[in-house]
Amino acid sequence: MTSSSSARRRLLCGPEDTSVLYLHRQHVSNNIWEGVLTEDVSCRRYKGIIWYVPIHPRVLAVIDEMGFGGILRCGQPKDIDHHLIIVLIERWRPETHTFHFPVGEATMTLEDVEVLWGLKVDGDALTGYLGFIPDAVDLKEMVWKQTSLSNQLKIELSDVHHQYIYVQRARVYCLLLLGGLMILNASGNKIPLFYLQFFMDVERCASYSWGGATLACLYHNLCEAALARRIDVGGALTLLHLWAWERIPNIRPHMVNRFHRTDFVKQDRRGKSSQNWVEYYANHKQDWDNRHNMVWTDVEYSTKPIATDEYMDWFRRITEVYLTKPGVHAQEGFHETTSSHSYAVN
After folding, report:
1. Strand partners, 124
2. 56, 124, 199, 289: which sits with the fewest CB atoms below 10 Å from its CB?
3. What tens digit of pLDDT does each residue of 210-231 get?
């Protein structure tokens, strides 16, 4: 009787208890199970030249001061494993902001962002302001193309310029890193003009939580993609790729040959010229500003596994294990052989 009940649970699509995953019917995994064809997801990534042009030491010093030296020194991003990103999207649950794997939950944290990319996470919340409200028509055109900014890097600097010239060049690098890697939008080639405001004051720039903004943008894009609301996925997918390699070692490739002005009206790039984003997200900003009072210190850190039998029993009731029907050959594509895999977790 016990084995029959266990087998039923293993073959059940979707959660037995829907109180947690209440968006399951809208999730892409439900379409996979039902055999509904979905559009291919396009993963955006930066293909710029900033790692192929020489950088002046004084420019690099400014970039370090602004807080972007760590991500710059990570080097040119490699090609994204498209299939890996798709699998992670299918396992991402917007209700909990975690990946639901057969062995339990996992997610990317601020610590991961800081360690992998060297970005500041304990800083001021990133909210946009321009100081004026442009016309809606003008706002839609207030973007830079990455190619236009990249072309500026081809102009070599000497050692005799005034300091502001090196600061200007550092801003170009930071804009490309921000709009091309950290907060990459779905267009893949356009960087909103209002990002420039964050780089006008070098000291102020270093006070922002760039890691927090990067993670929030990635979460948002994963949620949108998991609910099939977009097929062009932006955000820091390169960082997600690195996180997967770091946290799931068995998929990691082997290396061969080692070698403030808060009173301004806030603005976004989508034409909502009357929206004050500081007021709109006031509650979230207050939570972030109060983050130091919300650190759980009652429990000592332990290296022992936290996926207890009690937790796993609860987890399997509220999640789904299979994404495709066992024994059924799925449509051609990434899921082609997934349906033939057995459930190997006790």
Report:
1. 208
2. 289
3. 999 999 999 999 999 998 888 8
